[in-house]
Each structure stands twice: as structure tokens, then as C-alpha cells.
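USER: My hope is that you can spare some time for a protein that puzzles me. I am handing you a single protein, as its sequence and its fold in C-alpha cell form. Walk me, if you will, through where the backbone shape changes along the chain. The protein I mean follows directly.
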Amino acid sequence: MAPVIMDVYSNGSVKNPERVSNNIFQIDDSDFLRLLDRPRPISMERNRSFEEKSINELSSTLSPLHFVDHTFSPSVRSSLNTPRSNHCFAPHPVFTDAWQALRRSLVYFRRQPVGTVAAIDHSSDELNYDQVFLRDFVPSALAFLMNGEPEIVKNFILKTLRLQSWEKKVDQFKLGEGVMPASFKVFHDPVRNYETLIADFGESAIGRVTPVDSGFWWIILLRAYTKSTGDTSLAEMPECQRGMRLILSLCLSEGFDTFPTLLCADGCCMIDRRMGVYGYPIEIQALFFMALRCALLLLKQDDEGKELAERIAKRLHALSYHMQSYFWLDMKQLNDIYRYKTEEYSHTAVNKFNVMPDSLPDWVFDFMPSRGGYFIGNVSPAKMDFRWFCLGNCVAILSSLATPEQSSAIMDLIESRWEELVGEMPLKICYPTLEGHEWRIVTGCDPKNTRWSYHNGGSWPVLIWLLTAACIKTGRPQIARRAIELAESRLSKDNWPEYYDGKLGRYIGKQARKFQTWSIAGYLVAKMMLEDPSHLGMISLEEDKQRKPLLKRSLSCSH
């Protein structure tokens, strides 16, 4: 296994500790909302920014790229203390420990920081945990942006962009030009004293699956960098514009699909092992929607950019309608499915996918609260996966794929089913678990994905940053506070595990790596975002004001 070249900042502690707020939980909700609404410390025109424009306007009136940053999230090198913090406390010991651990994970290439290693756990075999994963680096990148350290993020974006241009083959098959790597590592040749990057596009991964989400996260991160720094020059580079176009060309190409969703293999996203998510998984569809919206804000409006933007706008309309109509589940929709007729043949069919009511799992009737709802895991012909997947639902809120009513219903569900979805350690990656015969068939008897473990109902601390962002956007900071308090009580003491096992997330995962970087970074991002809600702008997109909500049927969405 080739070594990763890593270094540690000479000062691993947080900056300006005497100015840092320790107890963000002392801020009440009214103060919190005032922080969120406080104007940013830059001059602003009253004209709507490009981000506020309707998707309906995009194909006819496309604004130049510089409108992206009329409002941007302030990033001052300040650790927990940010431009909006008016509280003066010592930093929480867990927060300080997390920053030190994050800095130890830095990976250097030719003396420049280019990412963070997946985990530093010397008690276990490295496997590929000694690499920089594109999806894993996202919370690390957000933490550094919030702390006023954008250079590592810029370096990462440019290095992964260069890797995209490599010829990619799995066996004798050449992958699409726009595919982004799952991960990369720094290889040091001691003889020639020379460093090079080695990328993995899925040819070395378990199951040999190319990551679909990497390209989406890359676009989302590019927009977060632009939003945070106010610097559009990186996104305007011809190389970045071409990289975006290549990713989008893969996703928007015409084929045999009758749906606007993306057809994917099992293991193509965070759940990177066989878990029955093949088809149209919610995680990929939500990331796809968000990446499309981010790309609209970043693409230059030259001839190529305008043509692509028109295709994106059309796809967004179709995708939002499909997801909001067919993936959404609440009490009323569950009852409708329960009463479905089958074998309907006409354009007026109600049961459009010919789902058999007898396929409804028993658990979903008890799981569904009277007020609440969520986007289910998968919808395809004669198949509906009713499992709850955290990442896809949180990204649906942040991207405004979910309507405001649906976003509130998702948060209602989390509150109503706190013990099932959060338990003693946030946050269940999916619910419920697969076990018995179903586990054998779906996972292929995967010994790592046993019940309530790893991807099969395990609890993943990294997801706390997505939950916190969704809580802020929906005006429910108290949910995030509660989850962060749970995480703080154990994460540092347990040496930042990758995941927890058990129905309540009580036990450190049986194969969990310690000092897992995105567990560390996820906590930091959640903590800083809750203390300064303006950071939400990096990772959140406002609803298209002109697009009418498509669903009026939900009892859970009426308050």
C-alpha cells in the first residue's frame, strides 16, 4: 500500500480561542432566527440575484456568472467565532479536539494541502482509508471554508478536475469522459524523490462500481467555494467550465428512460455496497437535482453554456414533478397505495408503476406518523422501496427539491420518530434494517451489512451536518441542538468512529475505523453552522418562487 504524504499544521489548535463561543445552546430560537436574517456585511443591490430567479426564466433570461455572489457567506479565519458571533466563551473541548484531529488528517501534494485522508486508524488495515475520497472531503471542505481557509478547497477542486481528464478504464471498458474519481492518493517515489497522484474511478472499489455522486458533489462544492469566498474566478476558468459540462453531459444524455431520474447500479453513492438501492435511489436523485441547480448558477452564458442551461431548466421541471409526485409518502399517500388497483392500462391510470399493494411492508404503517412524510428510497416499475434514507431527504430540503410543506413534514417525521432515526447517536443512514431472509437476498449475505450495522441501519455521525443544515433551513434549530448534544457526549471519547451499531446506535461499529475524518468534520460543520446560520448559504438553495407546489393532498403538510 503506497503511503500518503501528510503533514500537520504547526499550530493544531483553533484560532482566537479567547473570542470563541462555547455554548451555542444558550441562544434561544428567536435570537437564532434573527441571526439567520441579519443582513450580510457587504453592499447589495435590490435587484434579485440569479439564485432568486425562477427556473421558468432561466431559458430566456440567463444572468452572467457574477450574479451568483451578490450575496455570499462570510468566511473569516475564526474557528467557532464567526463574523456574526456576539458571544465570548472558551471553545468547547470537543470542538477544539475536533479541529486538531481534522488538521492531522490533511494530505499534502508537493507541499500544498489537497484534501483530508478518510481515516487515521493505525489499529486497522488501511485498505483504501488512506485515500482522499471526493464525497468524504465535502464536510472537511465546508469546515475549512467556514474557518476562512479556502486554499485547500481550491487545490482539491483543481486536482480532482485534472484527474477527471485522465483516460479511465475498467478491464477493457472505457468510462465516460466526465466521470469523477471516487478517491485519490499521493504516491511518493523515494528513489526519484517525486510525488504523483493515483486515482480510483471504481476499478479498485469493492464491486467495481463507478461513483455517480462524485461529480455531483464536485459541482456542489464548487458552488460552495464560490458562495463562501465571493470569488468567481475559479468557476469561470475554462477548465472548470469544461469539467461541469462533461459531468452534465453524462447525466443529460438521451437514452431509453421514460423517467427524468437517473438509473444507477447498487453501490454508486455513500452506500457503496450491495444494499438494494439499484434503480433510482433517492440519494442520487436529490444530489442530481442540487447539482443541476448549482450548475445553472456557475455556467458562463456563452453559446455552450446557454444551450446546456436550457436543457438543465427543462430537466429540473420534469425531475421536480416526478420526485414530488411519485417519491413522496405521507399518511394520505400511504392509504392511497394501500387501496391501489393493479393492471391499469391507460393514460389516466392512478397506479402508474403497477405497484402491488400486498408488497407494502408491515413496518411502514407503524412508522408513518399522522403528521409527517418523507421521500422514499426508490421508485421504479412494480417496485417501491419504502425505506427512509437520511442523506437523500436532507439534500432534498437543502436543494428545495422538497416544497416548504414537504420540508416541514420531513422534520415532523424526524421529531416523531426520534428514537428510531436518531436514538443515542445521530444519525440512521437508513431505516429500518434488513434481516433474515430479506438480508440474505438483498445484500448477498454481506457480513459487514448485518442488521443495524454499517449501511444496514447503522448510525453515522457525519450525517449530523446535513441534519443541522436542514434544521436551520426549516426553522427547527432545536432539533439540531439536541442531536449535537448527543454527538458531543460520546464522539471524542470514542475517538471519532466511522459509524455506530445497534437499534439505538449505542455501540461503536464492529468494523468502524477510529478517527474517521468525516465524522470529525461533520460535527465541526454542524457546530459552526448552528452558531452562525449565515454559513447555510454555502450549501442551501432557495425555492424557485415561481414554481407552484405540485402537491396539495398531504394532511401532514397542513398546519
Notes: The two ends are 57 Å apart (CA to CA). Confidence is low (pLDDT under 50) at residues 1-88, 551-559.
